[in-house]
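Q: A reviewer asked whether we had any structural model of the full assembly, not just the individual parts. We don't, so I'm hoping you can provide one. Inputs are below.
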Amino acid sequence: MQPTHDDPRIDQDLVAAINGGDAWAFETLYWRHRDWVANLAVRFTGDHALALDVLQETFLYFLKKFPGFTLTCQLRSFLYPAVRNLAIAARRKAERLQSEDGELPELEAPPPASTNHTARDQLAVVVTALPETHREVLLLRFVDGLSLNEIAEALEIPLGTVKSRLHNALDTLRRDPRTKEFFGQ
Amino acid sequence: MNGHEQNDTDEPRLPARLSEDLKALYAPPRLIPQRVDDAVLAQARGHLAKVAQGRRIVPFPRWLAAAAIVLATVLSSIWLSHQRSSEMAREDINRDGRVDVLDAFALARRLQQGAPTDPAFDINGDGIVDQKDINAIATRAVKLDGRQG
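A: Here is a predicted structure for the entire assembly that you could use as a starting point for your response.
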């Protein structure tokens, strides 16, 4: 059952407690980041069932780091590559088992658009059409709430590259006729 | 440019509605079955119980164990060396580190020259340094040679 209260300790302190065998600290981190990992896994796999597998595998991968684990960045920056790699592996495994007529969705599949073409649907179309590297940074910043530095750590790229990709993604949204209304144009 | 898009610290911002729509599209509430939570947390409890148990047993530091072994080796080596040297010293008349027939000759020469003899040369322990001690050294040297051969 999900805890009814949140532990006030920051992630680094909880990691230190887990090194001492504190299961409660691990549970706190699990509840704190579970939904984010699940959403990320869905974006990478495009499949809810696969994403649940990735969710489990991600936290078990994290668990096996203990004892003796030192968190040198934000936990989400640490978890991001794990989620991505596990999701890609899960997709490949699923594709091998998939019959010829059952194609898996594209990586970071767009949410299903409805037929009445609301502004949100148009946004989904434009975001999906972004280059993958630009979309990745855009979503990490504005959906997942990572700071620019945390994104740089998660993707292992320079901060300047993060800024550049984000600038390009926003520029596309701002110029595209389907999404420029979001910017009051 | 909309004032919400960019702030002074070079950190781009999104218009509120765009941000909300992105979150609604890409981070909707997910239904995660309880079995998934239970599976992860059960493994965590099991694994971390072992971690906690391991910490309760105060581990003997490896460096201390290594140091103890080295110290024991050095001390036993010194002790054996001392034992050997104290055992051999009395018969090693010429102090060349070994007991052989030359030690018997060296003691014989001293006795012949009438030089003062060290009581330590009383090899057979009869209170007198004489020919019997020379014989004792020679006998010991022969025994040693036999052992080595």
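A: Points you may want to mention in the reply: Residues 23-45 of chain A form the longest helix (23 residues). Chain A has two domains: 7-105, 110-177.
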